Amino acid sequence: MEALIAEHEQLAKAGTLRKSVGDVQKTIDILVKARERIAADPDHTSLELAKLQNPIKSSFDDIHKDLEEVRKHQTKYAKLLDKKFKDKSLPQMDYEALSSQPALINRAIAMHLLREGQFSVASTFLTEATKNQSSDAMADDMTMSGTEHDLGIDSLKSESLRKQFANMYHILHELKTERNLLPAIEWAREKAAELDRRGSNLEFELGKLQFVWLFVGNHTSNGRPNLLEGRARALQYAHHQLSRFQPRYMKELQQLCGAIAFCPNIQQSPYRRMFANNDAWDEIATSFTREFCSLLGLSADSPLYIAATAGAIALPHFSKLELIMKDKRTEWTTQHEIPVEVPLPPSYRFHSIFVCPVSKEQTTDQNPPMMMPCGHVVAKESLEKLSKHSRFKCPYCPSESHPREAMKIFL
User: Fold this and answer.
1) Which residues contact 14 (CB under 8 A, 6 or more apart)?
2) Of 111, 130, 351, 362, which is least packed with CB atoms within 10 Å of its CB?
3) By CB neighbour count within 10 A (0-12 exposed, 13-18 middle, 19+ buried), where does 159 fall?
4) β-strand partners of 370
5) Distance between CA 191 and CA 174 in Å, rounded?
6) How far is CA 307 from CA 263, 301, 302, in A?
């Protein structure tokens, strides 16, 4: 793998074509100067053209030499890729869950492009995707509810949705690149009522970071860091903009104001973590993205990206499973469950999974987990087998109960 990484770095360095571009520019400069001389003295055109032969030939030789170096690295890199990642056939499945839902797939792709700010690409894709698709077929595929239902293929073409994402990317650019919190703070104020209903603390966190940014002297009159002037500006900002958060965030506000007493030795104070968090800007950008998408009825991360990444993680396990099934001559008979555990990262686990301690099987919508009065939980099918529709003893404690006393739980 080290050789592959090293060759990738070499290819990336050579692939910039910086030397080739320089040689091309030299050739252009030679031709431009020759044209100017010919324009100034047309009688010597033949002589000037004759003088160009050797310099132009030399320039073209240099360009071909530069490109040959790039081709050499490309060939070597391709061979290392083929050697490291051998071509394997993908697992074959008779059941394709989304084969009959092309509109859902097109919508996921278009939404991903919009979320990534690729508005022109999304527009072209939507035009191509809907060119030969009838309105009846699209209506049949639009099965999702709520806001996601409203975001069908047609609504993705709306200018308002694109403006929403354009606004989001403008604010994120200001946050990440310019270290400017004001557009995000203004947006949070406009959406304060909706954010409060969600229990979000985004507006306060933005104001808190703005206080820290002012405190450390990043917004002074002369453009240079000045703790004394920054402290005064931060205190003024807290008085005018953060005072309304006192009922809910009194402790945090006390800590912010208490840090003023330790200026300029803030790094030796109990509040140093609040003023030395290198990840604060990335964290607030992530929080902003999550809340912005939530108000649109969308997840913080692109579903297409999550699905593709989870599929890439699961693919080796399915390939191995296919080989095992061929050797043992068995088949995968369930459509809505996978026969093996796929070790996805915690951030990719969106639903709790309960395994019945009696049957050792995962619960499903048809076979949900049921909690008995004693507090122990088993699957519905196990409950019916244990009780036989009469009073029964819990398999894990002496308590007795009737099946109708069990309650369905949602994990």
Assistant:
1) 69, 70, 73
2) 351
3) exposed
4) 378, 408
5) 19
6) 49, 10, 9
User: C-alpha distances in angstroms, 149 versus 100, 142, 404?
Assistant: 18, 6, 37
pLDDT tens for 116-175 read 878 888 888 888 877 755 444 444 444 433 333 444 555 565 677 788 888 998 999 999
Please answer whether residues 160 and 154 qualify as being in contact, where contact means their C-beta atoms are separated by less than 8 angstroms.
Answer: no
Are 284 and 176 spatial neighbours (Cβ–Cβ below 8 Å)?
no
Contacts of 406-411 with CB under 8 Å at 24 or more apart are 406/370, 406/371, 406/372, 406/373, 407/370, 407/371, 408/368, 408/369, 408/370, 408/371, 408/380, 409/368, 409/369, 409/370, 409/371, 409/377, 411/351, 411/352, 411/353, 411/354, 411/369
- Amino acid (1-letter code) at residue 26: K
Q: Omega of the bond prior to 264 within 30 degrees of 0, cis? A: yes
d(CA 369, CA 267): 52
378's enclosing H/E stretch is strand 377-379
- The residue type found at 121 is V
C-alpha distances in Å from residue 194, one per residue of 203, 208, 286, 298: 11, 20, 18, 15
Q: How many CB atoms lie within 10 A of CB 191?
A: 17
In the DSSP assignment, the letter for residue 299 is -
Count of positions (residues) in the chain: 411
State the Cα–Cα distance between residues 324 and 340, nearest whole angstrom: 12
The sign one gets for the Cα dihedral 183, 185, 186, 192 is positive
> 157 is written with which tokens?
């073409």
Residue 407 pairs in a beta bridge with 371
Residue 352 has pLDDT above 60, yes or no: yes
Residues 376 and 393: beta-carbon distance below 8 Å: no
Backbone dihedral region of 388: left (phi > 0), alpha (psi from -120 to 50 degrees) or beta? left
393: which residues sit within 8 A by CB, 6+ positions away? 399, 400
Q: Read off the pTM.
A: 0.57
Residue type, 103: A
- 218 pLDDT band, cuts 50/70/90, is low
**Phi, psi for 253 (deg, rounded to 5):** -70, -35
Q: Which helix (H) or strand (E) holds 176?
A: helix 159-176
